[in-house]
Amino acid sequence: MEKRIALIGIIVEDTTMIEQLNRLLHDYSEYIIGRMGIPYKERGMNIISVALDAPMPAISALSGKIGALSGMQVKTIYAKSKDE
């Protein structure tokens, strides 16, 4: 299956959900190229970016599962494939 490069941007508004988020990221760790988290204490939230090299179904599944967690805002962007 063709793999794509993607970046998932996550804004965590409910920091009590961090453990569940980390569990999901661990479950998909084989696809994660890198991640960066920025705590924004003044606003009581965290901003996280996760870079992936994965099949489209895995990227979509992870993004959807994160979005289903309470207090998470998620957006995913994809690099154009070489055919596009």
TrEMBL record:
This is Iron-only hydrogenase system regulator. InterPro entries: Acetolactate_synth/TF_NikR_C (IPR027271), ACT-like_dom_sf (IPR045865), FeFe-hyd_TM1266 (IPR023860). The lineage of its organism: Bacteria, Bacillati, Bacillota, Clostridia, Eubacteriales. It comes from the Bacteria. Pfam families: TM1266-like (PF21699).
